[in-house]
Design goal:
The complex is a heterodimer of chains A (278) and B (325). Chain A is mostly helical. Chain A is built from eleven helices and three strands, in the order ααβααααααααββα. A three-stranded mixed β-sheet of chain A has the order 1-2-3. Classes of the chains: A mainly alpha (278), B alpha/beta (325). Bound molecules: adenosine-5'-triphosphate and magnesium ion.
């Protein structure tokens, strides 16, 4: 394999940093969300959670800290779900023709765009984490320096695999559809169910059975599990729900994400293999 | 085989029921400028797209630089450069980035790439625009940038699909000049156009295409020579009768009625035949309203073979065809 994918990646990053307004929005929007939504909701939920009797000996997490993990996950979701749209733009108004007419193998485009999506998601997630800590999110409390570094790496590994999965999904769709409208409609159709059937903003334990089933096939749930495990530890309560993770749970979550990414990788691979623009 | 750099035999390409290219055969020699001339919808772009492996080769054989487009598309891609009919630029990348991106996806070594970038920007006179985003270039500058990009890898053949469409006359002259210079340095040029003057001025050889078929081919000279030595356009009071009279003059090989009058094709020096023709018509007391004598042009060749003038508008709405911006 040559290294032309690095050229695609280079271009992705040029585009990410070139539009200052867009870059600013990409970096500020999740922080804003955490600030407004998180702070507003915590004032409600934390008042309500006074009603739950704390489990003795188990850390109780406030709502802001609880949902910070969800906001990180959802930011990665949005960035990557919409990350393939550039390809559709290239196809209709840009340089997809040039790329496909070149001797570069098409899957370099997939890999380059994938790496771009992962990088953007990691940058955003890193910023939210820092911003959250400033706001009073109690991630990594009681962790040693080494433990904190390991936890951050663990979170990044989860984010990276999850992001790759969604950027490949988005890229695969972008290469198959013709118009901006159709892909936008699909993305919108996907985002809400993904968000609300996951454990990003609340516990899923009170869901009716069918919704719990949906939640267990939702990659977002597994990403959030991973982030909470690394950021909050393996045993805590939040909003009256007791969370306990074993190492096995987390490895399983990671495997589920890998499997999801494997599927979307193949989905995108096929789209690129037969891609034609004329 | 010979030193033909492109060989096409019985190429056919259909879009559904529409046969866009119909049993086309031709060959291009290394080092020449070869043109496909034809009206909108003739099948020029479709042919170029098959030759450059952007469309599959459905029927027939196509060999470019010795490689079969079916079995060795990768090698074909490596040996050619393409300038597309549509604008294919990232509007938010700068001129320099555009060339760099191209060189890199073609795996050019860095030093060579930088050298070529400099050389080509000089050739197409865009040195002052290196850091300008392509959306801020004029139409002609964009086209020049695309030509420079097509030449980055020093391809053996450069494909140009309507290189000067929608450009002003001065810019067209400049682009023709680059094309000639590049060709003099040894690059074979394959271009499509629906401009007669472009084909005439640039090409060593021309194929005239219409409705997916090649209807005439040869050098510009030989194509014109098929229409004899001279042509006379006549307007008279009675074209019907004048046509009959002209046919009797032995040097007149063909008489055609057009919307504007009569078109005569001569196989002899027109300046000697014209007086005879005028005298014979006036002898029948028919007034002659206008006389025009000219050497046959490619326009005349096209009209001769297709029975109609080349449509330079887009047909449907009559607007001149422009590139997308
Ligand atoms: N992707 C496609 N799907 C269906 N029909 C097509 C497609 N591409 C071209 N055609 C049809 O094939 C015919 C030849 O088109 P082509 O683009 O090769 O013409 P052209 O000679 O390049 O014309 P122009 O001077 O307008 O560029 C036209 O009738 C066109 O409508
Ligand atoms: Mg065309």
């Amino acid at each position: 394999m040559g290294k032309e994918f690095l050229t695609i990646y280079w271009r992705e990053m040029i585009r990410f940093t070139r539009f200052k307004g867009q870059l600013f929005a990409a970096l500020v929007q999740p922080a804003l969300w955490l600030l407004l939504f998180g702070v507003a909701m915590s004032s409600n939920f934390d008042a309500a959670s006074g009603a739950f009797s704390p489990l003795p000996g188990v850390v109780s997490i406030d709502y802001l800290t609880f949902m910070a993990a969800g906001v990180m996950a959802m930011t990665a979701l949005f960035t990557c779900l919409f990350g393939g749209m550039g390809l559709l733009f290239d196809k209709n108004w840009g340089i997809m023709k040039e790329m496909l007419a070149s001797p570069m193998r098409n899957h370099h485009i997939q890999i380059g765009v994938g790496l771009g999506g992962i990088t953007k998601a990691l940058i955003q997630v890193g910023l939210i984490m820092v911003f959250g800590l400033v706001l009073g999110v109690t991630f990594f409390s009681g962790f040693s320096a080494i433990e904190t570094v390991m936890a951050v790496l663990g979170i990044f590994a989860f984010i990276a695999v999850f992001s790759a999965g969604f950027i490949f999904l988005s890229a695969g769709l972008a290469m198959r559809v013709e118009s901006m409208e159709s892909i936008q409609a699909m993305m919108t159709l996907l985002t809400l169910p993904l968000m609300f059937s996951s454990n990003a903003l609340y516990s899923t334990s009170a869901f009716p059975g069918w919704l719990q089933a949906v939640s267990t096939v939702n990659p977002l749930t597994y990403l959030v599990n991973g982030i909470r495990y690394f950021a909050l530890g393996d045993d805590f309560t939040a909003m009256g729900t007791h969370y306990e993770y074993t190492g096995g749970d987390i490895i399983l979550s990671f495997i589920v994400l890998l499997a999801f990414t494997g599927l979307t990788f193949v989905f995108a691979w096929r789209a690129f293999k037969t891609a034609k623009v004329t | 085989m010979t030193d033909n750099i492109i060989e096409v035999e019985n190429l056919e390409h259909s879009f559904g029921d529409l046969k866009a290219v119909d049993k086309v055969s031709f060959s291009v020699q290394e080092g020449e400028i070869f043109s496909f001339l034809g009206p909108n919808g003739a099948g020029k772009s479709t042919t170029i797209n098959v030759l450059t492996t952007q469309l599959p080769c459905q029927k027939g054989t196509v060999r470019v630089c010795g490689f079969d487009v079916r079995t060795a598309p990768h090698s074909v891609k490596e040996s050619i450069g393409i300038v597309f009919q549509d604008e294919v630029l990232d509007r938010d990348m700068t001129v320099k980035e555009t060339l760099e991106f191209h060189g890199r996806i073609y795996s050019m070594p860095r030093a060579q790439r930088l050298e070529r970038e400099k050389e080509l920007l000089e050739l197409v006179e865009l040195e002052e625009k290196v850091d300008v985003r392509t959306k801020h270039l004029s139409g002609g500058m964009k086209r020049r940038l695309e030509i420079a990009r097509g030449l980055m890898t020093r391809p053996r053949v450069l494909f140009l699909d309507e290189p000067t469409i929608g450009l002003d006359p001065q810019t067209r002259l400049r682009i023709w000049d680059y094309i000639k210079r590049v060709n003099e340095e040894g690059t074979t040029i394959f271009l499509t156009t629906h401009y007669m003057d472009e084909a005439d001025l640039l090409s060593d050889r021309i194929e005239i295409m219409d409705h997916g078929k090649i209807i005439a081919s040869g050098t510009s000279e030989s194509l014109k020579n098929t229409l004899g030595k001279d042509m006379i356009y006549l307007e008279t009071e009675n074209d019907e009768k004048s046509a009959e009279i002209s046919r009797r003059v032995s040097e007149v090989t063909e008489v055609k009625k057009t919307s504007k009058g009569l078109e005569l094709i001569l196989d002899a020096d027109g300046s000697r035949v014209l007086p005879t023709i005028i005298r014979s018509i006036e002898d029948e007391s028919i007034d002659i309203l206008s006389v025009k004598m000219k050497k046959p042009s490619l326009d005349d060749v096209f009209v001769h073979y297709t029975g109609r003038e080349i449509r330079t508008g887009s047909g449907e709405n009559g607007m001149p065809k422009m590139r997308r911006h």
